Amino acid sequence: MALFLGLYLMRLAWSGMLLGLSVLVLGALALSLFLPATLPSLLYGIQPGVAVILLLMAVHWLWQERYRRQIVFIPGFARVKAGSSLVRGSSGRRPREASTIDSPSSSNIHPAEASGSKK
User: 55: domain range?
Assistant: First the structure.
């Protein structure tokens, strides 16, 4: 059982899984041909182990699905409701006044230029 769980958690490629399954089927066929009385008792004995393995595989699958959903639905990137105060209304579209940085300051103008007289 520990060997199967180790192989399950290693995430083999499909070719590795098919190879392992084919070895298992060939071993069962060889056992049924050469020792026909042993196969029924062996199959009867591994039933509790198979049940535990299936239960652990189901729990592992549910755990992975939960993690996947946490990644897909990250709380920080949730959409804001339409009536929320976080959504900007028409106040975000109003025209803004010119910045004071862009307008010339009156202290930089020479007093002669301010009065309009030239020398």
Answer: 46-76
